[in-house]
Amino acid sequence: GENVEQHPSTLSVQEGDSAVIKCTYSDSASNYFPWYKQELGKGPQLIIDIRSNVGEKKDQRIAVTLNKTAKHFSLHITETQPEDSAVYFCASNGGTSYGKLTFGQGTILTVHP
Amino acid sequence: NAGVTQTPKFQVLKTGQSMTLQCAQDMNHEYMSWYRQDPGMGLRLIHYSVGAGITDQGEVPNGYNVSRSTTEDFPLRLLSAAPSQTSVYFCASSRQGRTDTQYFGPGTRLTVL
Description:
The complex is a heterodimer. Chain A has no helices and 11 strands. By secondary structure, chain A is mainly β. Chain A is globular and about 45 Å long. The N and C termini of chain A lie far apart (41 Å). The relative contact order of chain A is 0.34. Chain B is an all-beta fold. Chain B has strands at 4-7, 10-13, 19-25, 31-37, 43-51, 54-57, 64-66, 76-78, 87-94, 103-104, 108-112. The termini of chain B are far apart.
């Protein structure tokens, strides 16, 4: 089955800096890579996703890049703000024919004011 | 739309007790799933369903039972609770496709003594 590795497990930055979180996956049939943000005591919420027909997608301060040859994808947050502090998860859909996702282990991002 | 709802929000059980975690969605989604979240281990898939009357096991199904009699509801049953089942449980739903967005509920925090 699919295996997703996520790094780093914790990330601490100063407000205004950029943050980068990286994930690798194993199943070459994967074609959907979402990123979720989880705030304390809440369920994960989708912040951005990318499908394998594109290499990069951007939404304001958030961007995701995908390298299918190397089987890795990354989340980039620019101009970080204290409200960006949360746990971030990457995921991929593997070779399934429905919506099954495999998640990375999560990254705790702390943005210091 | 209420989205994905879960009840209860918190629950404490004694070893050997049984209970049902409720999950409902009002988005007419075919795909529903249950995850458990443990520190440092991300979200692990317990069971999933691709439509009413159809369920299958995920990565960590032992000790849990599911059924799907309607499109809207997907309850998770703990047959005989064990301390190893202490965790936060999330229900999610999406449309049927491989690249459709999954929406998560707010979670149930379960403690087994």
